[in-house]
Amino acid sequence: MGLIQTKDQPLFIGVDGGGSKCRATIYSVDGNVLGTGVAGRANPLHGLAQTFESIEESTRLALLDAGMKESDSRLLVAGLGLAGVNVPRLYQDVVNWQHPFAAMYVTTDLHTACIGAHRGADGAVIITGTGSCGYSHVDDTSLSIGGYGFALGDKGSGAWLGLKAAEHVLLALDGFAVSTSLTDMLLNYFNVTDALGIVENLAGKSSSCYAALARNVLDCANDGDAVAIAIVQEGADYISEMARKLFSLNPVRFSMIGGLAEPLQAWLSADVVAKISETLAPPEFGAMYFAQQEFNKSLSV
């Protein structure tokens, strides 16, 4: 049986869209989770059509999970936290979308991740997943670092780790760099025997394809591979420096989220690790909270 929404009790959906996946969660007005759905990547930098398709699919799955009909999307007030919409043109493209919701409010995935991590309170957050970026919000001041996308930025991210490993291995196979276990890892990963086999699997591919290599690079580093250690440490040093810049606003709380947040901690500077607090809620909660705030503002106008 479908859930009922009244004018005074709207339902909200928080959407977290990034370089690898899009997660949507439907919440009641008091913040209870009603249903969740996960679909493919939703970063407008890599295609609006794919982004909209992933938002619609994750919404459809969330509605079904909540016991609602697919057509009930028109009852939802949506908050979208998306990678890539820090670029003004892409933000406008998303805002202009003929969306399936009752209302839609758009901001960056960094913003919603920070809201979620601290449950609406001030704080700082670093996302280290397919990409990497940082955000701090204290009082009326915000600081955003990175978020430029692969391969212009995203240092220390999963995609960056995969790219740097592939670059080194290709040099090694051509005789310009030392060959280590990282070389064998990459050849075995793609089940190929030479450089062109690697190129065939990676040339022109998305950031998520490179990010898929990150765990293997970390495994090589943890096993003592000197090249992998150098790559991981360079990325982790950048993340530590990013954190210190965010700390310049003196946030009360600091959290790290994303697929590499936990495995990278062992490589971060001790002063940064000491400040890490647990995330209080996921980015989808932050997107929902953002939508609630914006929706309530619209009612008071």
Automatic annotation (TrEMBL):
InterPro entries: ATPase_BadF, ATPase_NBD, Euk-type_GlcNAc_Kinase. Residues 13-274 form the ATPase BadF/BadG/BcrA/BcrD type domain. Transmembrane segments: none annotated. It holds the Pfam family BcrAD_BadFG. PANTHER family: N-ACETYL-D-GLUCOSAMINE KINASE. This is ATPase. It comes from Shewanella glacialipiscicola. The lineage of its organism: Bacteria, Pseudomonadati, Pseudomonadota, Gammaproteobacteria, Alteromonadales.
